[in-house]
Amino acid sequence: MIRIPHLIQVILIMNDSISVVSTLLFIMFFHFNVSAQTKEIGIFYDHADIGAVELPGTVSYHSVDQEYLIEGSGANMWFADDQFHFLWKSIQGDFILRANVKFVGDGVDPHRKLGWMARNSFQSDAEHVTAAVHGDGLVSLQYRQKKGEDTEELTSVDSAPDVIQLERKGNTFIMGTAKMGEPLVKVSRDISGLHNELFIGLFVCSHNPDFIEKAIFNNVRIIKPFDESFERYQDYLGSHIEVLDIETLERKVLFSSTHSLQAPNWTVDGKALIYNSNGYLYRYDLESNATTTINTGRAVKNNNDHVLSFDGTQIAISHHDKDDKGDSAIYTLPAEGSSEPFRVTKKGMGASYLHGWSTDSKELVFTGNRNGQYDIYSVNIETGEETQLTDTEGLDDGPEYDPQGKYIYFNSNRTGTMQLYRMKPDGSEVEQLTFDELNDWFPHISPDGKKIMFLSFGTDVESGDHPFYKHVYLRMMSVDGGEPKILSYVYGGQGTINVPSWSPDSKKVAFVSNSD
After folding, report:
1. What integer is the mean pLDDT of 375-400?
2. pLDDT over 50 (residue 32)
3. CATH code of the domain covering residue 352
4. In terms of domains, do 210 and 344 share one?
5. Which of 369, 415, 362 lies closest to 384, judged by CA?
6. Tens digit of pLDDT for each residue in 179-232?
7. Is residue 206 helix, strand or coil?
8. Comparing C-alpha atoms, which of 481, 371, 363 is closest to residue 427?
9. Alpha-carbon gap, residue 399 to 350, rounded angstroms
10. Which of 37, 166, 337, 347 is a good FRET partner for 309, with 20 to 30 A between their CA atoms?
11. pLDDT number for residue 39
12. Distances (CA, A) of 1 to 27, 265, 290, 328, 489
């Protein structure tokens, strides 16, 4: 049985003018009529050797770890002739490709390569853009703008990265690389000659035709970003709910949806995640993968500020209440749900965005719009009486108690950028914890009380804003401050990690990433 990638090559060699779309339509017809035995591999469609390689390559996919092993040979990827093994799928328009990468073994040739590639066809001299890492550590954005011409390159100052990203914005291609835990180092180039629809994927080239090289790729993501023609906060991308292991830094997608899913809490028994979507709350069972709706009564316009009490018996929610002209008001109810949620904040006080429980479950802390300014308040659940804890220009947000009830952690842009702080529960003894140029939001304290996980936006975002659909970092640091460490590179933002989302054993964090 002929393999479909080989068929593509034959078609394109026979007639170079055949478009990618026409080719794929022909392949679909061929596939459905002769039952070619092609099977999707993870998030990719298939794999193939490109060029006249002497040793055929292979791909294996480990679904539990969502990890790919690619073996490839090939004399080179340079001049007008590319030889390598390619794990691919087709895509249209803009994209973001990201993966953690690692060669297996010391290798034979220092110029062996791995990385991401986007190309017009499977012909060896096709137009392409490639984010390549060499065996000796060299990092380069390689490209061929016209079929049959020599490859050009733009080298990076980075070396031997663990993370590779290739992004397309129209005719601009951006390569980002980093050693795990460090910010991405980027180079970009406007490159012509690439179709709207491309074959994109991961590759390995041994740079020696007589040898096979191997590489492992994990945390692999193919992202369709937010189209700037869409209307923000009206149009939404799909969502992945993921889990990050903070020791291995491996990510796993639990499930995906075409809807906007936001803010997963981890229940204190470790059995489920609670998240919100379209105003409702849902419970996702981690063992059965079943999803059920949590009854919140009349409160069906909930935002992503739902928080479980420390003992796990109650949940507090922020609901946009029609009795308050749509302002967010705070309610509590049993964790399993209730048709009669209890309103905590009083009517007419202004918008109230929940963020945390006190350890004794008697008070909540929230960000409130009072007197034209957003500050942090605590509120007695039984009486609804509020106490103002901060009073500064700018925005104070994201308050959360640590498990011992010793501090309230929060974020504030009082110094110009959004940074993390902590204070005593009465608002005294304020300490700043982060000091760099990134904008840090939503400090979440691990159940063991030792670590803070938080979301960091870049300088492309205003300090008082935390929008959807941006390049963000998940970072972690000690509860007492220190140098933050990047744990994951995410396309997300609003809804990614708004709520406490640590696993009960403090070993994992749940979060949301996005893609169209």
Report:
1. 97
2. no
3. 2.120.10.30
4. no
5. 362
6. 999 999 999 999 999 999 999 999 999 999 999 999 999 999 999 999 988 999
7. coil
8. 363
9. 18
10. 347
11. 62
12. 14, 49, 39, 61, 41
Task: Give the amino acid at 13.
Answer: I
Torsion angle, alpha carbons of 26, 29, 30, 35, to 10: 150
AA letter at 16: D
CA 447 to chain centre: 23
The torsion angles phi and psi of 477, rounded to 5 degrees, stand at -155, 170
Q: Is the pLDDT of residue 376 over 50?
A: yes
- Answer yes or no: are the C-beta atoms of 112 and 209 closer than 8 Å: no
**What's at 190, amino acid-wise?**
D
Which amino acid is present at 254?
Answer: L
| 48 and 140 part of one domain | yes
Q: Which contacts qualify for 53-59: CB closer than 8 Å, 24 or more apart?
A: 53/83, 53/84, 53/85, 53/209, 54/209, 54/210, 55/209, 55/210, 55/211, 55/212, 56/85, 57/84, 57/85, 57/204, 57/212, 58/85, 59/85, 59/87
Cα 152–Cα 158–Cα 161 angle in degrees, nearest 5: 105
Asked, for residue 1, whether it belongs to a domain, the answer is no
Range 89-99 average pLDDT: 98
Please indicate, yes or no, whether residues 79 and 217 belong to a single structural domain of this protein.
Answer: yes
For the ranges 8-17, 345-354, 488-497, which has the lowest average pLDDT?
A: 8-17
The residue-averaged pLDDT of 412-440 equals 97
Give the CB-side neighbour count of residue 276, counting CA atoms within 13 A.
26
Residue 31 has pLDDT above 70, yes or no: no
Bridge partners of 367, per DSSP, are 353, 376
Polymer length in residues for the chain: 516
- 273 and 341 in a single domain? The answer is yes
Residues with Cβ within 8 Å of 232's Cβ and at least 6 positions away in sequence, in order, are 226, 467, 468
Give mean pLDDT, residues 328-341: 97
CATH of the domain at 85: 2.60.120.200
Mark which of 160, 194, 223 sits at the end of a domain. 223
The pLDDT assigned to 33 comes to 33
13 pLDDT band (50/70/90 cuts)? very low
The whole-number average pLDDT for the span 334-344 is 97
Q: Tell me the per-residue pLDDT of 288-317, one tens digit each, with 9 for 90 and over.
A: 999 999 999 999 999 999 999 999 999 999
Spatial neighbors of 379 by CB under 8 A, at least 6 apart, are 330, 344, 345, 352, 363, 364, 365, 366, 385, 386, 387
Look at residue 22 and tell me if it is in a domain.
no
Alpha-carbon dihedral 437, 441, 446, 451, rounded to 10 degrees: 10
Residues 6+ apart with CB under 8 A from 264: 241, 273, 274, 275, 284, 499, 501, 510, 511, 512
Distance CA 492, CA 182 (A): 18
pLDDT above 80 (res 24): no
Residue 259 has, within 13 A of its CA and on its CB side, a CA count of: 10
Question: What's the structural domain count of the chain?
Answer: 2
Q: Is residue 25 part of a domain?
A: no
- Domain containing residue 436: 240-515
Q: Is the CB of residue 60 less than 8 Å from the CB of residue 104?
A: no
